[in-house]
Design brief:
Elements (H helix, E strand, L loop, with lengths): L3 E4 L1 H5 L9 E4 L1 H9 L5 H4 L4 E2 L4 H14 L7 H13 L2 E3 L3 H9 L4 E2 L12 E5 L5 E2 L13 E5 L2
């Protein structure tokens, strides 16, 4: 039986072709990202990958985990869908995205970094106001105290 691998946009950017010997999966959102970035392989890759969507119950598990680490604001809908697919298929995910790796680690999904070193431990994020310095556990559109933008930083 071939290993099941879910491929992120960053993984596909670092490959010339989908490796032989794996069952490769991705989402429609990843192919849209490839096209948006001008990667002309999207049409070709459609024939080499299984294009799948995630189920709502697995998306909810990803959302809960992402809220717990503070990654919820750092993950795009495409990112969350990829992690949900990997969780549902019990597949490994190949990605260079640290937030995807972070959630994968929390959810015990195996992952492989393709072009960069992967994360070593789970990171929990907090949000610091650039103006007044106040710290929030959850992402806000802006600081409710002074109105400045918030930036993510690692929790200690």
């Amino acid at each position: 039986m071939k290993p099941k691998i879910v491929l992120d946009t960053s993984a596909l950017f670092s490959m010339e072709d989908v490796p032989a010997g794996i069952d490769a999966y991705t989402t429609g959102g990843v192919l849209e990202e490839l096209e948006r970035y001008g990667d002309r392989r999207a049409i070709y890759l459609e024939h080499k990958l299984s294009i799948v969507s995630s189920s709502p119950e697995f998306e909810e598990k990803v959302n809960v985990a992402a809220k717990g680490t503070g990654d919820i604001a750092r993950l795009s809908p495409t990112d969350k869908g990829l992690v949900a697919v990997a969780l549902e298929l019990k597949a490994e995910i190949w990605t260079d995205d640290y937030s995807i790796q972070n959630i994968a680690k929390v959810l015990s999904i195996p992952y492989k970094a393709m072009g960069v070193g992967g994360i070593k431990k789970v990171v929990r994020w907090k949000y610091r106001c650039q103006g007044c310095g106040r710290i929030f556990d959850e992402q806000q559109p802006d600081c409710p105290i002074c109105g400045s933008q918030l930036r993510t930083s690692r929790r200690k």
